[in-house]
Amino acid sequence: EEMVQPMPPPLARPADSRRAVRLISLDCTGTLFEWSAPIGELYSRSAARALGPEHAVPDGGVVMEAFAPAFAEGLRRWPNYGYGELSSRDFWSKVAQATFQ
């Protein structure tokens, strides 16, 4: 005979109807969609288009190497993508600036 274990209590509290949901973040990469090229290459191409041919832009491999420490530093300085301190746009702008410096 199989023993049935009771369900553990839920980890999350019930939603408080007085508080509105302000953000839902989903990571869909690799499940719902795939990038058309490595992300460093896409960032490099975007920077080249935005800056124009008169500016030198690092290739995708260099961008990816620079992104990891820039992103880690961004999260260290502004946890939760800048929540309470920066807009998400400003957070990512600072990470992008640090990546391309």
Automatic annotation (TrEMBL):
Native organism: Alexandrium catenella
InterPro entries, alphabetized: HAD-SF_hydro_IA_REG-2-like_cap, HAD_sf
Protein name: Uncharacterized protein
